[in-house]
Amino acid sequence: MINFEKDQEEVLDRTENIKSLADQVKTLRDLEDQVKADEELLKDKKRDLEKISGEIIPTLLSEMGLASLKLADGSAVEVKPYY
User: Fold this and answer.
1) Tens digits of per-residue pLDDT, 27-68?
2) Rounded CA separation 74/79 (Å)
3) Which conformational region is residue 68 in: left (phi greater than 0), alpha (psi within -120 to 50 degrees), or beta?
4) Whole-angstrom Cα distance, residue 71 to residue 18?
């Protein structure tokens, strides 16, 4: 005996599972895209950090004839050789 009602329920269950899976795959792709964008942003910030700490500040200190500078908050910068 064929149970059309049960078959229909199974099809609906399978359809819901496929939709749920598709939603999760889309969420995964969105997160992967966000991580990639965040990694690029972090890479750019690290490059800026390296430029400021390795080039701009040492050049300014050198132009002013200074080897170090202590700020009002107690922090300091100092030119040291980097190999």
Assistant:
1) 999 999 999 999 999 999 999 999 999 999 999 999 999 989
2) 17
3) beta
4) 60
Which is higher by pLDDT, 16 or 46? 46
Q: How far apart are CA 12 and CA 65, in angstroms?
A: 78
Contacts for 58 with CB less than 8 Å, ≥ 6 apart: 79
| Alpha carbon distances (Å) from 74 to 30, 64, 67, 69, 79 | 43, 20, 16, 10, 17
The strand pair at 76-78 and 68-70 is best described as antiparallel
